[in-house]
Amino acid sequence: MSIFSTIQSQLGVMSWPLIALSVITLTIIIERLVYIVLNSRFHGRAILSALYELDVADQQQLADFAQAHGSQRSPLSRGVSMLFNHRHFPKQLREEAVSIWLHTQRQRFVSGLRVLNIIGVISPLIGLLGTVLGLIGMFEGIAQTTGSVTPSDLADGLGLAMATTAAGLIIALPSITCSQLFSVWADKVIAKIEYTLNHCNLYLEGVSIDKPHCPKPCEEHCDKEEKCCA
What we know:
The protein contains nine helices and no strands. α5 packs parallel to α8. The chain has one domain (2-221). It is 77% helix and 0% strand. It has helices spanning 2-11, 15-38, 44-51, 59-70, 75-85, 91-109, 113-144, 151-204, 216-221.
């Protein structure tokens, strides 16, 4: 309780709103960091390598591939499983399903970032409001003083008033910075997932863009008129 009393004596009437904003900011940042740690591995190359070993005509093999990735925790693996579970539908319907699924994933990746942006905007304003209210109270006290006003009295009053602006900026800086960094991470992750799912969708149609090339020994024994590793 003494800590809150000290903070309130330093920040004045705006202490509780600033404390609430700082707690919300810290909670969201910690939650987002934990989410990033738990969802930072995708193994996109490994999935594509395993994908190109599948026989599109073998439905049992495709079903096993979908089931194996559906049991994993990675968002990309779950997306691949979802796509392969819809393999019987036309390509356009699969694309619509992937689009909806990606939208849901994006909402999860950017959860809380809008709140951080709002806090980054309003916290300096709350701090500035506290400064203005502190200055008003200081000048009212000076007006009621019958004796002389020393520079130290003004310095104490100004320092107390400006403390709320500093507190608001201290809250705003990590809020806006973390919001932007988390947003960049979310965009990068969604791009990787979309890239891999597009390859999977095309492979279900018999198109393989980045299929690994044949090794040199295989190329040496291949017929020139036929494609190796077809």
